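Before going further, learn to read the protein records used in this course. A complete example follows; check for yourself that the lines match position by position.
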Amino acid sequence: MRWDEEVRLLREEMRRVLAFLEWKASWWIEVGGKYAGTDAIHAEGLHAYSHRQASIQTVIRTGFEKQWQGVMEQVAAGREMSDPEVTIQDEEDDSDDEMA
């Protein structure tokens, strides 16, 4: 039961990190367009800065996605070693249920 709880927590933490980084990139884009009262030079600078920050968030998110690509397969392999009756398909079915 502890294993299952840890796996659920891991999946949820990974999902939340990716969702946060996606939200933060969108937030930066939104913030960059809110300074209409400034002069053209400052508005251009704020726009460029906000887009750069959004790009950074997107790069971080993409990096995590790549690093985490095989994590669930490794978790399933470890689970099979500790409990041979559980298959990778069982693990994938669990993740499909949780993501829905």
